[in-house]
Amino acid sequence: MSASTIDLAVIPGDGIGPEVTAEALKVLEKAAAAEGIVLRQTHYKLGAEHWLETGETLPAATLEDLRTRDAILFGAVGAAPGDTRIPSGIIERELLLKLRFSLDHFVNLRPSRLYAGVGSPLANPGEIDFIVVREGTEGPYVGNGGTLRAGTPHEVATEVSLNTAHGVERVVRDAFRRANDRPRKKLTLVHKHNVLVFAGQLWKRTVEAVAQEFPEVTHDYLHVDAATIFMVTDPARFDVIVTDNLFGDIITDLAAAVTGGIGLAASGNINMDRTAPSMFEPVHGSAPDIAGQQKADPTAAILSAALLLDHLGFAGAARKIEAAVTADVEARDGAVRTTSEVGDAIAAAL
Amino acid sequence: MSASTIDLAVIPGDGIGPEVTAEALKVLEKAAAAEGIVLRQTHYKLGAEHWLETGETLPAATLEDLRTRDAILFGAVGAAPGDTRIPSGIIERELLLKLRFSLDHFVNLRPSRLYAGVGSPLANPGEIDFIVVREGTEGPYVGNGGTLRAGTPHEVATEVSLNTAHGVERVVRDAFRRANDRPRKKLTLVHKHNVLVFAGQLWKRTVEAVAQEFPEVTHDYLHVDAATIFMVTDPARFDVIVTDNLFGDIITDLAAAVTGGIGLAASGNINMDRTAPSMFEPVHGSAPDIAGQQKADPTAAILSAALLLDHLGFAGAARKIEAAVTADVEARDGAVRTTSEVGDAIAAAL
Ligand SMILES: CC(C)[C@H](C(=O)O)[C@@H](O)C(=O)O
Ligand SMILES: CC(C)[C@H](C(=O)O)[C@@H](O)C(=O)O
Fold first, then answer.
1. Considering only CA atoms, which residue is closest to atom 5 of ligand 2?
2. Which of A229, A233, A289 should be substituted to probe chain B, the one whose Cβ sees the most B Cβ atoms within 10 Å?
3. Nearest atom in ligand 1 to B195's CA
């Protein structure tokens, strides 16, 4: 394979973020070297700690700098729940969501797979192997809303979910493409169109229209409440799920739980138009309670690095990381390993 | 106990609704008779079938008539998913949600309990016994939204979640009261305040304020995504959950699934100010695929009748129905029984 370069931005973040990111980089570096890929890294100090030191969430200059990179490897951000020095949600909204929205990460890709030997909380999980294509740039996440007469008995608070044909169509088409590339070729739209009728009809009509372009893909529909039932009674029924930003947030955490926990759940915030770098991050948060103790499982971060390679066109290297992770995960016997021991083992298995 | 009268409205509805309602009435009639309660019934033909015959969802005169009753026993409504004669969601919105909103059912009470011997999809469910107090009259369910340029590439669709201090405070206080009456005295607020900041802050502030009135109740907070994880990894942690209309819809279906299915999940749509009749219904839908075949489990409908008695002040009769259900459910051995056989058995166990 010919030599290529990846100009990588790294945002380790807070809590366990730096620890798991270090292992993801360890594996990424080795996989890249084996393929003759030159990995250039620029590390960015961002997150709750950085906010406490500087009062900055995501300065404009930093965002512009990030835009010039090929991809972003993201650890986790967020303060300890009890930390009252940091306004609630500010890091999530002004850093994480701001990156997703500014860099137009319209495909929030979250694969769920139950590895052989991994314990599921379900008694009979079956063969779980699906992906959720969560819309990442609109819906109830747009921050459109307000408060009138805050703190009085007459307070009114609103949240506006914004949904556009542009935004829905591109993510639905992406989901159909992915379904078309998978053996089962099945797509499930998850929404709540019987109640959220305006947004729901847009999603439903769009799925019906885009389905015409993919005659081999079958599709069905589930209300989000019914989808959570199937997630615990028959998760094997799912192949590709496409859904909005909020429903996707909810069902991917549930999906991570039924496949053995968020220590294994990877994600990509992907700009499929490639007008800005995509960002890859474990689904888990910064887990301040176990930070700095080498207790965190870096597997989700490592699998996120594989998604990164895949997105940049290095499918071979991505498959190798995934195979090494599979080998490691399937051999786990419950013995306690440090974060870096897990990273070492997966790197060695490459 | 002195003789009393219940002036009951009955809306059997569609699909399995009439079958399960018949069993709920069978048990309710027997329980009432034993306590010297006179049960007067008025049956209303409403639902998808009625819409097909008349084009009516909920005529104003019917709604006014319902207002004069003491309580409503509701079966299930809704057309078969494939039935294109009925505009999608119209029965849900213009009948079911219209009743909840018009009659100010601000407490949507949904208990979840894992009965001994009932199979949970979870490998180690633990002792599950919690209630969800779902807000029932506002949030994303208000039907406030719209569509601009429908069907064009420039379509924009909005959904507005409306939240008021009045609406949030009354349901939060109700949830604290219920928590205060339970042995564990623990309340969990479920929301997504790091993203839905306007509504989320109103909910959080309200919980903090109302908590002052209940010094014995401890409370915590979970984002809705994290709540779904705990629902499958540690559902025993929950005692009373208070949440908004949409999050409540999602987590109560999930809760029903982990406690053995929606065949057992009862609910009350309760107007705690008693300015209008409350309405009691199984969480399940009309299940047109098994309608008329005596296959439906009427237990959820029967438990809903117990909630009805409880709300009307007949706690003794309610407890007797619950005890009869517990006895029946715990004795189930997997043998197939018809809907009416289950009703007969529970009535006999009273
Ligand atoms: C931290 C939070 C804003 C975020 C989200 O809601 O998208 C997280 O839960 C996730 O799923 O990546
Ligand atoms: C039928 C539908 C409108 C309803 C809801 O979303 O509230 C149902 O799912 C429920 O939970 O009672």
1. B249
2. A229
3. 3
Q: How far apart are CA B197 and CA B199, in angstroms?
A: 6
Q: In the CATH scheme, what architecture does the domain A120-259 have?
A: 3-Layer(aba) Sandwich (3.40)
Pairs across A and B, CB distance < 8 A:
216
Nearest residue on chain A to B245, alpha-carbon basis: A195
| Span A1-103+277-350 CATH architecture | 3-Layer(aba) Sandwich (3.40)
- In the numeric block, which tokens belong to residue A252? 């991917």
| Partners of A242 in the β-ladder | A133, A189
Give residue B313's region: left, alpha or beta (phi > 0; psi -120 to 50): left
Q: In 3-state terms, what secondary structure has residue B222?
A: strand
Domain boundaries along the sequence of chain B: 1-105+277-350, 120-143+164-259
**Residue B117's closest CA among B264, B314, B240?**
B264
The residue annotated as part of the active site, out of A65, A181, A220, A225, is A225
| Residue B15 assigned to a binding site | no
Do domains A1-103+277-350 and A120-259 share one topology? The answer is yes
Set of chain B residues whose Cβ sits within 8 Å of the Cβ of A226: 253
Give the pairing of strands B240-243 and B186-191.
parallel
Locate tokens 């490691």: which residue? A328
- 3-state SS assignment for residue A2: coil
**Domain topology for B1-105+277-350:** Isopropylmalate Dehydrogenase (3.40.718)
Point out the ligand 2 atom lying closest to the alpha carbon of residue B92: 3
Number of H helices, E strands in chain B: 12, 12
- What CA–CA distance (Å, rounded) separates A150 from B2? 48
Q: How far is the C-alpha of A302 from the C-alpha of A24, rounded, in Å?
A: 4
Let me know if A141 is a catalytic residue.
Answer: yes
How far apart (Å, rounded) are the C-alpha atoms in residues A53 and A51? Answer: 5
Give the global pTM: 0.97
The answer to whether the beta carbons of residues B176 and B214 sit under 8 Å apart is yes
CA–CA gap between residue B133 and residue B176 (Å, rounded) = 10
| Cα(A135)–Cα(A270) distance, integer angstroms | 10
The answer to whether B2 is annotated as binding is no
φ, ψ of residue A21 to 5 degrees: the values are -65, -40
Residue-by-residue pLDDT tens, chain B, 350 positions: 446 999 999 999 999 999 999 999 999 999 999 999 999 999 999 999 999 999 999 999 999 999 999 999 999 999 887 788 998 889 999 999 999 999 999 999 999 999 998 999 999 999 999 999 999 999 999 999 999 999 999 999 999 999 999 999 999 999 999 999 999 999 999 999 999 999 999 999 999 999 999 999 999 999 999 999 999 999 999 999 999 999 999 999 999 999 999 999 999 999 999 999 999 999 999 999 999 999 999 999 999 999 999 999 999 999 999 999 999 999 999 899 999 999 999 999 99
Which residues on chain A are in Cβ contact (under 8 Å) with B152?
165
Instruction: Measure B174 CA to ligand 2 centroid, in angstroms.
Output: 21
User: Smallest CA–CA separation between B2 and chain A, in Å?
Assistant: 41
Q: What type of residue sits at position B268? A: G
CATH class of B120-143+164-259: alpha beta
What is the amino acid identity at position A283? Answer: V
Q: Which of B83, B220, B225, B273 is catalytic?
A: B225
Burial classification of residue A91, based on how many CB atoms lie within 10 Å of its CB (0-12 exposed, 13-18 middle, 19 or more buried): buried
Q: Which residues pair with A148 in a beta bridge?
A: A156
